[in-house]
Amino acid sequence: MQVLMRSGLQKIENAHDIAIKTALPLSVIVVAKNEAFNLKKNLPSLLACNYPNFEVVLVDDYSEDTTFSVMMDFAAADPRVKVIKNKHQKSGKKNALKTAIGVASNEYLVFTDADCTVGPDWLTSFSKAFNAQANFVIGHGAYERGETWFSEFYAFEAHKSAMLYFAAASHSFPYMCVGRSMAYTKALFHSTSGFDRHAHIQSGSDDLFLQSVKSKAQFSLHPEAVSFSISPSSIKRWMVQRKRHLSAGTHYPISALVLIFCYEVSNLLTPLVYLFLLFSKHPQLPLITLLLIARILLFRSNAQKFSGLVKSTDDVSQLWWTEYPMSWLNALISMNIGWMKKEAWTTRR
C-alpha cells in the first residue's frame, strides 16, 4: 500500500508544471450558518488572494446570529463580494450551494468554508487546473496542529487521509475530496443533476458529489491549493467531526470502502500481530522486524513527501509516529458515537 501511495504522490508532483495562460474568472462560494465570528476572522484571507479576477458569493443558510449582517458589511466594503440567502424552504449546505451556483456570475466555481483561511496563491492553483482543461479540481483541506494533543493528532489524521485519497485519485480511483478546498465547473454540476442523487443525505456535498460525477469529470489534483482550519481541541469535538464524516462514508461505493477498510484494519492489526510474534519467539521475527521498520520508514517518507506537495510551513508530517495510535483511537471513537445527537452540518469547536 505504501509503495502505491508513493508512486501516486510522485505522479502528482510530476504533473504540476503548468503555467496560467488566462486569468479565468472564478466564483468563490462560501456557505455559512451561524458563522459571524469565523467570517470576520477568516474571510479577509480570501479577499487578499493575489488573483486578479474573482468574485466571492456568500450564502447565509438560515443563520440565527449576525452572520448576514457581517456578510453585508463585507459586501459594502468590497465590490467583489455578493451576498445572498438560501432560497430553499429547508436549510442545509446542499440547498444553499444550489442557490449560490444559480447566482454565481462565472462558469468556474471554487469552494471553501467560513472556518478556513487560505494563502495568497490559493486561487492561482485552481486557475492552473482549469487552464489545463480540468473541470473538477481536488484541493487540500488541512488542519492546524493546535495546542492540545487532540488537535495535533486530528491534524495528522487529516493529513494521512488526504495522502490516501490523493494517491488513489492519481491512480484513476477518485473517491474523496473536501468542501474546504475544491472546485468544479457549473457545466459539470448541471450535466449531472447536481446533488439530486444524494439529496436525502445531509452531508456529502463534496465527496458524494465527486463520486456521482466521476464518470464525466476531468480531474486535476492540487494539494498546494490548501485551506487551513482549526483542529477540534477536545475529544467531544473530535467525535462530532468523526460522526459527520462517517455519515457520508457509509454511502461510498464498495470499492472505496474496501480500500479504506483494508488500510485501517492493517494499521489496527499490525501492532497486535507483531507483539504476538514477538512473545511467541517466531523464527522469522528478525525478517518481520526489518519489514516492519521498512514499512514505517516508507510511511514517514510519504508523509514528508505530501507535506512538500502541500508546501506547508506547519509541518504536520512530524507526527508520522501517530499512525498506529490514531487508527486505534479512530476505531474506538467510531464505535462510541451512536449515542450522539444529530449535529448540524456546521458545528462549533
What is the mean pLDDT? 89
Strand content: 5-15%
Which stretches are low in confidence, meaning pLDDT under 50 for 5 or more residues running?
none
CATH class: Alpha Beta
The 3D shape can be described as: globular
Distance between the termini: 34 Å
CATH fold-level name: Spore Coat Polysaccharide Biosynthesis Protein SpsA, Chain A
N-to-C series of helices and strands: HEHEHEHEEHEHEHHEHHHH
SSE map:
Elements: H1 2-14, E1 26-32, H2 36-47, E2 54-60, H3 67-77, E3 81-85, H4 93-103, E4 108-113, E5 117-118, H5 122-131, E6 136-144, H6 149-170, E7 182-185, H7 186-191, H8 207-213, E8 219-230, H9 235-249, H10 254-279, H11 285-310, H12 323-335
Parallel strand pairs: 1-2, 1-4, 2-3, 6-8
Antiparallel strand pairs: 4-7, 5-8, 6-7
Helix pairs in contact: 1-6, 1-11, 2-3, 10-12
Structure description:
The chain is an alpha/beta fold and 349 residues long. It has one domain (2-249): Spore Coat Polysaccharide Biosynthesis Protein SpsA, Chain A, CATH 3.90.550.10. It has twelve helices and eight strands. The protein has helices spanning 2-14, 36-47, 67-77, 93-103, 122-131, 149-170, 186-191, 207-213, 235-249, 254-279, 285-310, 323-335; strands at residues 26-32, 54-60, 81-85, 108-113, 117-118, 136-144, 182-185, 219-230. It has an eight-stranded mixed sheet, sandwiched between helices. α1 packs across α6 (149-170), α1 (2-14) packs parallel to α11 (285-310) and α2 runs parallel beside α3 (67-77). The model has no long low-confidence stretch (mean pLDDT 89).
Give the key terms.
eight-stranded mixed sheet, alpha/beta, Spore Coat Polysaccharide Biosynthesis Protein SpsA, Chain A, 349 residues, 8 strands
